[in-house]
Write a structure and sequence with these properties.
Layout (H helix, E strand, L loop, with lengths): L5 E6 L17 E8 L5 E7 L4 E6 L11
Antiparallel strand pairs: 1-2, 2-3, 3-4
The chain binds zinc ion.
Zinc ion binds next to loops.
C-alpha cells in the first residue's frame, strides 16, 4: 500500500517536543506547514493551545490573530 507522506516545511516548534518538561505547551499558538510529497499540496496545521482549538487546512490559511492569547 502506498500512502501519502507529508514533509514539514515550516514549524514554530519541534513537532515531537511541543510540551516542556513540566508538560506545558510550548506556546499558545503552534503552527506547522506541511507539503504532501505525492501531489505537492500544502497544508497548514494550526493549533491554539490556549483556547483549545485548531485546524488542518489546505493552502495558506489566513492567520487569525484574534485567536491568540
Ligand atoms: Zn497529496
Amino acid at each position: 500500500m502506498v500512502g501519502n507522506k507529508f514533509e514539514i516545511t515550516s514549524q514554530t516548534y519541534d513537532l515531537t517536543n511541543v510540551r516542556n518538561q513540566a508538560g506545558e505547551w510550548f506556546d499558545d499558538v503552534i503552527d506547522h506547514r506541511v507539503d504532501c510529497t505525492r501531489c505537492g499540496r500544502s497544508y497548514q496545521i494550526f493549533t491554539n493551545t490556549y483556547h483549545g482549538t485548531g485546524n488542518f487546512t489546505e493552502g495558506e490559511a489566513a492567520s487569525d490573530s484574534s485567536l491568540i492569547g
